[in-house]
Design a protein that fits this description.
single chain; 297 residues; alpha/beta; Rossmann fold; 9-stranded mixed beta sheet; 10 helices; 9 strands; 33% helix; globular
Length: 297
Amino acid sequence: MIFLTLSILNAIITFPDAFTLKDGIVEMKAITYAVVQNEDGNRTPLLMDTSFQAHAESPLPAVLFIHGGSWKTGTRADGAQAVRLLAKGDYFAASISYRQGRSNGFPAAVHDCKAAIRFLKENATELGIDPTKIGLLGFSTGGYLAALAGLSAGIAPLDGTLNGKDVDTSVACVGTISGVLMPEDAKGQLKRLYNNWALEDRTVERKTTFPSTYIDRDDPPFYMVCGEVDKVSTPKDTKNFAGLLRRANVWQHVEVIEGSGHRFEKPNSYLGIFGFFDTKLGGHARSALQQTINSLR
């Protein structure tokens, strides 16, 4: 049975071509999960694209995909393939848009991620979601946002107030793919891009923008995938971040994809992280991905 919130019904009415049902999977695009007030007084909707099983027998675990793009580019469409595969694996999956660019510096994008978590929790019954089983999946700079959002539940400056401030923003687990996890150690172009975004507001203390600042023993488990020859999100940085989690007694695992750079060419590179979500949330994404891989042979 498909449960639809008012926001989703409005999306279907406004964008009827964005609603599809194929092979038992519902796909809905351009759902408003929050609205932000701009400095010029105009209001901008924040959107998500979703995929999920049409006839789930019980509440589904959920995964939010956060795209990359150097804090200034990228779109929620970048997560379309991951979201589709997760839905086949019995997840409610969503890819979100968030504020980007120097005019929307830290912590605007973090607030948007928290607002998306709140949207899922507040509408869990209508969407058929288990609100205790929500995970974050981020690629590249989206991995930075996933880590920061996952580590900072209950910290008011990062929780923000979008979609209210009384809804808990904690998540059950965090997965990152080529995640920028140690921006404090960034060099060259990555350092310039990060500083331009994170420190656009000169009153921001640099340390408050680092995911590592918020690590403590109560944090959710982390699974981090990185390419062996990635020069953007290096294995060294990923392992250093994992070491900080380990010292705080937080479950963590690093998988290094042999021969890969920042982007992975082989679909089986994602089997491990999909299996992580299955273990922590209870879906079947790994087997769904494996079936897809087998069908391509």
